[in-house]
Design a protein that fits this description.
β2, α5 and β3 form a beta-alpha-beta unit. This protein has 14 helices and 12 strands. α4 crosses α8 and α12 runs antiparallel to α14. Bound molecules: pyridoxal-5'-phosphate.
């Protein structure tokens, strides 16, 4: 039987220095790496990780982290970059050329859309948005220039869970590569490759770190040729990661399964409680039956991230919703998720998803490691004060 990724990560092989049998991976720092002679220098090829050539090309610490992230994603290869957004940028830059077009889901992670609109456009790469909940419309958007389709499950603010295998099937039928932003699933809720992604990136900043203190991203592949393209672009761009950041991630990975499950349980308890509140019009959480794409989540996922959005009733004013967010004491206002502190961000849904008939005011919650009863009390006191009348 295949072992769970969380077990795999803890028992992943690491060879400590001879005579020092400790499981913790050493922090290796280097720019220069010595070669014993000229012949050895000429024989070393950084492309294939047959040895060490230069700090930017990898150290025992970063090679181990790459291997473990690949294990988490069920991949064969991994490249590390300084942030999740840099991972998205690397995929685009490695796989797209002038004149190409990419498709982004309409609920795409905001900065990924910005990257396409402002940077890729300058390089002559165009993009179009597709509705991830309407796979039937996808073939009509794929043209002769389409090279890449980004997938995200669920959308990180509006939480719609798409039919990933169907979207991937349509892409592959037309010879288009698929790349999945797997930050929400983290390699634990589902396997991105098994659901049809050719490339799987993740913001390691979120669940793999879990500490709110590291920024890093990964790009994983199963296909060697695809990895080679990504790896070459990665090296030509000089995208290295810091040894101490890699060490923090190696330390955090051992607890990712426990943290993911704990935040999932807390978030579901709070989402269910909020769903029954009179102030709330709708709770968007893929594990809740009324949430968009719930059937796809149920078909493919065993777990959910500790993340959900709430649509507060349209009868309230923006000022009241802002007062609710300001009135929270444990939920802090801030971006990101999967860290120890519960976070909250209000979004302007009309601006975020123009043309969609969403009713109410959207507030996105990320659940940390505080006790559920305390978080629930915090939500209750802030609602009682902000939503009077
Ligand atoms: C946070 C996030 C990213 C980007 O990660 P950074 O490390 O903050 O650049 C990308 N995609 C999703 C879905 C995210 O939540």
């Amino acid at each position: 039987m295949a072992r769970d990724p969380s077990t795999e990560l803890i028992h992943h092989p690491y060879q400590p220095p001879a005579g020092f049998g400790a499981p913790q991976v050493a922090v290796h720092k280097a720019s220069t790496v010595y070669f014993s002679d000229v012949a050895a220098m000429r024989a070393r090829d950084w492309r294939h990780k047959t040895g060490y050539t230069y700090g930017l090309h990898g150290t025992p610490t970063t090679f181990t982290l790459e291997a473990r992230i690949a294990a988490l994603e069920g991949a064969a290869h991994c490249a590390l970059v300084p942030s999740g957004l840099a991972a998205i940028g690397l995929v685009n830059q490695a796989l797209l050329s002038q004149g190409d077009e990419l498709l982004l889901p309409a609920n795409v992670y905001g900065p990924s859309g910005e990257l396409a609109r402002h940077e890729l456009a300058r390089w002559g790469i165009t993009h179009r948005l597709y509705d991830p909940m309407d796979p039937g419309a996808l073939p009509g958007l794929i043209g002769p220039k389409t090279r890449l389709i980004w997938l995200e499950a669920p959308g990180s603010v509006t939480m719609e869970f798409p039919d990933l295998p169907e979207l991937a099937r349509i892409a592959h039928a037309q010879g288009v590569t698929t790349a999945l932003d797997n930050t929400w699933g983290a390699g634990l809720a589902f396997n991105g490759f098994d659901l049809g992604a050719d490339v799987v990136m993740q913001a390691l900043t979120k669940f793999p770190s879990g500490g709110g203190d590291v920024l890093m991203g990964s790009v994983c592949t199963r296909d060697a040729a695809l990895h080679e393209r990504i790896h070459l672009t990665h090296m030509r761009l000089g995208l290295g990661v810091a040894a101490n950041d890699a060490e923090l991630l190696l330390r955090s990975l051992a607890t990712i399964g426990l943290r993911y499950a704990a935040q999932d349980a807390s978030a579901r308890a709070l989402a269910l409680w909020l769903q029954a509140r009179p102030e709330v019009a709708r709770v968007l959480h893929p594990a809740l039956e009324a949430s968009p794409g719930h059937a796809h989540w149920r078909a493919h996922c065993s777990q959910a991230a500790g993340l959900f959005s709430v649509l507060f009733d349209a009868r309230f004013s923006v000022a009241q919703v802002d007062a609710f967010v300001d009135g929270l004491k444990l939920f802090r206002i801030g971006f990101s998720w999967a860290g120890p502190v519960s976070l909250v961000v209000p979004y302007d849904i009309a601006q975020l998803r123009p043309g969609q008939a969403w009713q109410g005011h959207l507030v996105r919650f990320s659940v940390g490691f505080e006790a559920v009863a305390d978080l629930q009390a915090d939500l209750a006191q802030a609602m009682a004060r902000a939503f009077v009348g």
